Amino acid sequence: MSAAFEETSAGTVEEVYAELLARAPEHRMAPRLDAVRRAVEVLGEPHRAAPVVHVTGTNGKTSTARMIEALLLAHDLRVGRYTSPHLARVTERISVDGAPVDDETFVRVHGEIAPYLALVDAELTGRGQPRLTYFETLTVLAFAVFADAPVDVVVLEVGIGGSWDATNVADAAVSVVTPVDLDHTDMLGDTVEEIAAEKAGIVKPGGFLVSAAQQPEAAQVLLERARELGVPFRFGGIEFGVESRATAVGGQVLTIQGLAGRYPEVLLPLFGAHQAENAALAVAAVEAFLGGGDRELDLELVRTGLGAAESPGRLEVARTAPPVLLDAAHNPHGLRAAAAALQESFTFGKLNLVVGILAEKDVEEMLRGLLDEYEEHATEFWFTRSSSPRAVDPEELAELAVDLGFPEDVVHAVPTLDDALAEAVQDAADRPEFDGAVLVTGSITVVGEARTLLGL
């Protein structure tokens, strides 16, 4: 045991992160739960130290989780939030009281659980199975950090899917499902019904299902799961939703009809109809958690919570002269939502898009979406890549874009993100004031690296 501890006795966040990355990569999550169940068992079940609000869906998971967190913090609860992936540093994924876990705690708790993780690794390899993956290990670490804090409630975002996701060792008091669409089809299924079935796996006996408005086939799957387990269920557009909204400086003003109350004149400092719907979903989830859906929340606490909500990399204004926006949309559904929000909330004469996409995505469909959403605007495209080994080559993106109908004179292939960003920003700056702007999009990795380049 001492040798195992010495092998994993990292002293900095960066060293811990390197050890995590040495395990199976994040995008190769194993379809199993037994390994994580064993890990939390030997650690004394830290995943049961606080009640859980579990969030799944295709898009909007992180934004919704952050809004739920903000609302619970406004109610004077100590909140742990686990989301993924991170934009810049791994500690962003594990939040306590609204801030990333501090470096000392991250390293200390990892060191404390390392011998137990080594024990589980040995058991797994002894049975001819892969040791705990990057995501499994990080999930166990998050549970341990939250138990160590301790927190009053955990807001837990799935990595991929739901049924076999590492986070699903937890039994949620409230299961939250954001809109379900096609993504990760190689792992979750080729149809919305199949994907919804995977995500429905987070609904547990004794829990409560709160779902965004869904496509009929996804709604039916979720409804059947809730009825099978005998748990209450509420759907956006039926029992709750956005009653009205108006754009405002820095965001929008909403009136939300919740499960138990109506919440008028709520300022949300995020852009787009999709974020308004995420806010309504978050309110309904908190109503379900705090009062079983039957108790109205205090209006001022709702205003305070949503007014403090942040979602970095989601139509985030990174600079203003010229405007540079960052949006981590990484599938066709997300691209459409971001484009609608951008066109509603901002006015530009010319928009320069800096685009990087990961290979496991539906690259062709994403490019078609970009062309469809922006073809009526004076748009120029800089195709580039993040440092991720999964990033598609910029030349390949540019060639495919032209094949799909992008005009050749607005398509550029730039090998590095810093050069692509510099060129797009300079082009926007050369235009009359307020006429040119830049949007960085296509993947979370490209947006994360752009944030760093822009000093965020």
TrEMBL record:
List, alphabetically, the GO terms of the cellular component aspect.
cytoplasm
Q: Which residues form the Mur ligase C-terminal domain?
A: 313-443
Key words, A-Z: ATP-binding, Ligase, Magnesium, Metal-binding, Nucleotide-binding
Is the keyword Flavoprotein in the record? no
Which major enzyme category is it? ligase
EC no. given is 6.3.2.17
Q: Which InterPro entries match?
A: Folylpolyglutamate_synth, Mur-like_cat_sf, Mur_ligase_C, Mur_ligase_C_dom_sf, Mur_ligase_cen
Q: What is this protein called?
A: tetrahydrofolate synthase
Source species = Kocuria flava
